[in-house]
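User: Can you help me understand a structure? I only have the sequence.
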Amino acid sequence: MFVWGLPSVKTALNGIFAPSFPISGLHNLVEKVPPVVTKPTKEGAVYVLGLLSATGTGILFSAIVGALVMKYNPIEIVRTWLRTLWLVRYSLLTIVLMLALGTLTRFSGTDTTLGLAFANSGVLYPFFGTLMGWIGVAMTGSDTASNVLFGGMQRVAAEQLGLSANLMGAANSSGGVMGKMIDAQSIVVASTATRWFNHEGDILRYVFFHSIALACLVGLLVTLQAYVFPFTLMVVH
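Assistant: Let's start by predicting it. Here is the structure, written out as tokens:
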């Protein structure tokens, strides 16, 4: 899995098979304008089918190799895979829908509107910017998706307020991690893996306070790093 994640390996695998599909009716038809970006920029909408370089492909390959090393019957490997696929069918649907929501949020401009609203918090922005990352992961289920949604906005807002763009980018990721425990796909995966079906609401109610409390603590730390010595020495400029 470590080798599969190397950029050079991913590039080589994409060179073998990674067709791209510009989405008609959307590609380069959405334009971001100042103050979100320094100059008007068209938003590309190209879907890349990177099957070989996908992390899931590496996981599948590792599982097959591991099963063969442990001398599992190939038929049993396929049967187990199909049984697992059927077990997590609702989890997969939830994940797909949450990723779709993240894409919709990006291309509709909702993320930008939310980011500009947070930027109006002024000196309190380091705290609320951290919570932006928390909201992003809670909506999309992915820290990566949250960074895609709000990373650019964090940079723009930070520059407008005279803050470190590196600090707010890291705050988006750190705050986002605290939202991982309440995102829909993680809760569904947890309930499915433990066979605790139809208790997703119970899980959410139990972990919500922990999630928001931890996100606020991270926000306080980021605020100290933005303004208070010697915490400011921790920021890479």
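Now, to help you interpret it: The CA atoms of residues 38 and 185 lie 35 Å apart. The mean pLDDT is 88. Let me know which part you'd like to focus on.
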